[in-house]
Amino acid sequence: MSKNTVTVIMRCKNSGWVIKEALDSLFAQSFKQFKLLVVDSGSTDDTIEIVNNYDCELIQIPATDYYPGTVLNNALKLIETEFVVFHNSDSIFQKTDSLSKLLEAFSDDKVQAAYARQIIRPEAHTWVKRDYKVSFPENEPAPEWITISLVTSAFRMSIFNEHQFYEDAWGSEDIEYGYWLQKNNYKIKYEPNCIVMHSHNYTLKQMLRRRFIEGEADAYIFDAKSSIFNFLIKFSKSVVIDFFYYCLKGDYINIIGIPIRRWCYHLGYLKGNRLGQTRKRSNNTDRSKAQKVVFKNYD
Questions:
Q1: What is the pLDDT of residues 194-240, one digit of tens each?
Q2: Which of 237, 295, 231, 296 is nearest to 264 (CA)?
Q3: Who's near 7: CB < 8 A, 6+ residues apart?
Q4: Domains in the chain, CATH or no CATH each
Q5: pTM of this prediction?
Q6: Pairwise CA distance, residues 180 & 162, whole Å
């Protein structure tokens, strides 16, 4: 592949704590024939100063203009290469051949998209360890409910002539895209040999806010309709599952935090999903409420 074949898109905001590692791991790849496009949405730390040390094209947009689907669609208009790789500013390649492994997925002409295996950071909490073990297995196929993850992924650019990232809700643009690919019988490849480090120990507020945007998006993507009854059932099941997993791992100290964490997890989804349902019924195109919820994570 030549440099006219692959473009890497990296989105960032206040990523100074990690973006140097992400960029270093990218430029250390054995596959070097790529162009890098960085889209920053209003960083106030040293992110821009760090990015300027690397060979890339930098686009800066106001924070208030950041709606993931819209930003990605606008970035794709600037790309003329055959493939695009999305690589988060907090995603760190673990091997120098990871990008090559990801791109090798396209040796199969039927593959339209591929995504990497994510492993946890050393400081990951027990619940994060469990979630990632299930979501990104070392050898087995990824679970069917993960359509694709943009954290580190690659697409044939030609597919975007048929379908762009959705813009109805604020988040889950990757889930919607993977769902669309599946519905249209396009092949998605999970590539466990492309390994990146990426995980978050969300605070209770951050978890509630993240699940809020996921709940809103699911109302649009899957026509999901959450309810108090479903909320209570899912909350109860997840508490039981977490309890046994924590016991299995010997993390008895943190068992006490399971109910409140799962309460926030499912409550955030319920609130977001209800907003999504309301917006759909009223044909309300205003995505700003979810955006404001997300921005609180940067307070």
A1: 999 999 999 999 999 999 999 999 999 999 999 999 999 999 999 99
A2: 231
A3: 34, 35, 36, 37, 79, 81, 83, 84, 85
A4: 6-197 (3.90.550.10), 204-298 (no CATH)
A5: 0.93
A6: 10
